[in-house]
Amino acid sequence: ALDLLAALMPCVAGYAEIGLGLLHDPATRLTANPYASWIRNYGDEGYLNGVNNAIGLLETLWQQRGGEARIAELSAIFTTATRLEANFWQMGLNAVAERPA
Q: Which of 3, 54, 85, 91 is most exposed by smallest CB count within 10 Å?
């Protein structure tokens, strides 16, 4: 479970950061925005509570499952997951940039 959470946290926390950032950005227009429900969902207090619960579970499992002794392994899992998540977002940005005008 600790390994799984280490792999999921970049997505879980990253979506919250992006959702919150977009939701509170004055430049974000939600009206007629095809991503409005996504932005609202991941910037929502309910989702943020879930993120905080996941962080709490990660901290608990860290203590229970000897996270300190496994820091290198867990960091590698987290780093790989973060890289994959960043690449996922970059694919979308590349597709928009490559789309003919």
A: 91
Helix axes 71-98, 2-23, angle to 10 degrees: 40
Distances in Å between the Cα of 74 and the Cα atoms of 7, 16, 44, 63, 79 are 8, 22, 29, 13, 9
Tens-digit pLDDT profile for residues 46-68: 999 999 999 999 999 999 999 99
pTM: 0.83
Domains observed in the chain:
2-98 (1.20.910.10)
Q: How confident is the model at residue 36 (pLDDT cuts 50, 70, 90)?
A: very high
pLDDT the model gives residue 100: 84
Structure tokens at 6: 């280490």
Radius of gyration of the chain from Cα atoms?
A: 16
Cβ proximity of 50 and 74 under 8 Å: no
CB-CB neighbours of 55 under 10 Å: 14
